[in-house]
Design brief:
There is one protein chain. With 213 residues, the chain is of the alpha+beta class. It has a single domain, classed as Glutaredoxin. The chain has helices at residues 13-25, 40-46, 56-73, 88-95, 105-116, 125-134, 145-162, 184-191, 201-204; strands spanning 2-8, 31-37, 170-173, 176-179. It has a four-stranded mixed β-sheet, sandwiched between helices. Helix 1 (13-25) runs parallel beside helix 3. It is globular, with a radius of gyration of 18 Å. It starts with a strand and ends in a 9-residue tail after the last helix. The mean pLDDT is 97.
């Protein structure tokens, strides 16, 4: 059985698209996916990357591209009323269902839909209460659950950074990282055992010197 870790942040439209596309991409394989919330902003900061939102023209393009890609793939996606936004409340709420840093697919999908369907404000107080009610049966009620969720998020983000994850969505399997919704065909090829991954090509790119000082 193939074991895959999907590093995700609900603020990313591409994470939502990849989440929805993943079962189709892996159809016919024997696999298990762990869904791990991470703080995208911390990953970007760690690598000195301003992200699409840090470049005004790229921000607008990203929104156009994400909405086009959603309709092209048949996946509902409407930009929320404000974006980017601080995803911490959503990440921590999702992790209140967890004891080990992973969340189940139902929890991930519930939070993703809260953000990416309908075009509403993802952090609206009333909507957050409704989301919490939707997750109520899975939320931990023990003392310290909220504080542990914060620690799980820190742990997940640090672990992802240590694994050289630089953005989301990222798929980690057998020591390899596949980044972005457009990497899903490459991930499938790898899991199918394509011969290219056994050639020096994968490792050789690490040794190409940069031509920039």
């Amino acid at each position: 059985m193939h074991h895959i870790v999907m590093h995700l942040d609900f603020v990313s439209p591409y994470a939502w698209l990849a989440f929805q596309q993943l079962p189709q991409s892996l159809q016919g394989l024997n696999y298990h996916v762990e869904y791990r919330p991470v703080l995208l902003g911390a990953l970007l900061h760690q690598h000195g990357n301003p992200g699409p939102a840090g470049i005004p023209a790229k921000r607008i393009w990203t929104y156009r591209h994400a909405e086009w890609l959603g309709q092209h793939m048949g996946i509902p996606l409407q930009m929320p009323a404000q974006h980017p936004f601080n995803p911490l409340p959503l990440l921590r709420l999702a992790l209140q269902t967890s004891r080990d840093g992973s969340i189940n697919r139902l929890v991930a999908e519930t939070v993703f839909r809260h953000v990416w369907e309908g075009g509403a404000d993802a952090l609206d107080a009333e909507r957050l209460q409704q989301l919490q009610a939707q997750l109520a049966e899975q939320l931990r009620s023990d003392d310290g659950a909220q504080e542990q969720a914060k620690q799980l998020l820190r742990n997940n983000t640090q672990t992802a950074t240590g694994a050289q994850v630089f953005g989301v969505p990222a798929f980690e399997t057998q020591g390899h990282i596949f980044w972005g919704v457009d990497s899903l065909p490459m991930l499938r090829d790898f899991l199918d055992g394509h011969a290219w991954f056994q050639t020096p090509a994968w490792e050789n790119v690490k040794h190409i010197p940069s031509g920039l000082s």
